Amino acid sequence: MNRIDRYTTWLFWGYFLGGLLVFLTIFTAVDAMSTMVNYKNVAPSALLNYYLYSFPEIISKLLPVACLLGTILTLSSLNKANELVALFASGMSLLRISTPILICVIFISVLGYYASDRLIPKATKEKNYILYYDLKKEPHRFSTIKTDKIWYRSKNSIFNIQTLNAKGDRAQGLTMYFFNDAWDLVQMITSREVIIQGSQWLLENGAVTVFTKNSSFPLTTQFKKKNIVMAEDSKDLQSAGQTADMMSQAELKHFIEKNKNAGLDTVAYEVDYHAKVSFAFAGLVMCLLGIPFSVGRARSGGTMLNVGICLGLVFAYYVFYSSGITLGQHGTLPPYVASWMPNIVMTVVALVLLKRLKR
């Protein structure tokens, strides 16, 4: 890095961190006022903890916007002081001048992806716990929220769980089907409550139904408690009661493979799987889009015009991105196409604009 690169880098980090702090403050303040209106008599400590656990997700969503704002304001500042003219005269192209910014944005994207993959799932679980226990005062909904008819297949058995708590150690509404090698139903077990301790499952208030060729009617036996040993442990089931934002990339991949093997539709989860990576690099795409709009407007509207351009580009990208995700979740586009198409198209548009600029 030469002196010009270091100068540009420090300018970018100043605008990036300042923009991120401003956006985070505004978003949190507006959302907090809405939360206090909707949920009255909430302890200040509960509200504080709720937003502390919300920050990783909020920051992850704001990183692309802050990257774009930092890029536009950095180059606009150089342009307004005629420093860009001097750099162009020395033989540096606009892309070369922007290289330190692009390197910073790539670093932010990689760091943001890693942090979100490790922090957001854990923080989301804690945030939801506070939401249903302290804010909504509905703790009974915490164990059943985002769970509905979980199906698993293991060798010659298929089982269904109606609801699973967030820790994956208690379940309700279990139905198990056991088949022979010819896939004839030989046994069915139902249970209202299940306590899961690894591969050891304790079933409560259920029934065992046996199907045999020697009897015209199935034989049913009721039980209060029954212990069974399962091939699946609680680690496999933990992700079943969660949405994609509550799972890491590895957990989501395992969840998709598990449900695919059971013959279930996993399209929505596959879209989320690819979207986790593609959105991490949204800041780089927005940065490339912002570069062509950062020069040539030193005195025709100034900083406010550039901020307006920033907001317009953000809106255009998010509309395109959310449309692609929706089409993917409905099966109109393949998951990887739906997740990566907005980034690819917007990157091509940015490169075309940069080429036409001829700087």
What would a concise description of this structure say?
One of its GO terms (cellular component) is ATP-binding cassette (ABC) transporter complex. The chain is an alpha+beta fold and 359 residues long.
List the helices and strands and how they pair.
Blueprint: H1 3-38, H2 44-80, H3 83-89, H4 94-135, H5 139-142, E1 150-154, E2 157-164, E3 170-179, E4 185-197, E5 200-210, E6 219-229, H6 234-238, H7 249-261, H8 267-280, H9 282-290, H10 302-329, H11 335-357
Antiparallel strand pairs: 1-2, 2-3, 3-4, 4-5, 5-6
Helix pairs in contact: 1-2, 1-4, 2-4, 2-9, 2-10, 4-9, 7-8, 8-11, 9-11, 10-11
- CA radius of gyration is 27 Å
Beta-sheet strand percentage? 15-25%
The profile of the biggest β sheet is: 6 strands, antiparallel
Strand neighbour order, sheet with most strands: 1-2-3-4-5-6
For the secondary structure, the number of strands is 6
Mean pLDDT level: 82
Low-confidence stretches: 144-148
Question: Helix- and strand-based class?
Answer: alpha+beta
Element string (H = helix, E = strand): HHHHHEEEEEEHHHHHH
Helical percent range?
A: 55-70%
Instruction: Identify the overall geometry.
Output: elongated
Quote the distance from N terminus to C terminus. Answer: 21 Å
Count of domain modules: 2
Count the DSSP helices. 11
GO biological process, one term: transmembrane transport
Keywords: Cell membrane, Membrane, Transmembrane, Transmembrane helix
InterPro entries: LptG, LptG/LptF_permease
Subcellular location: Cell membrane
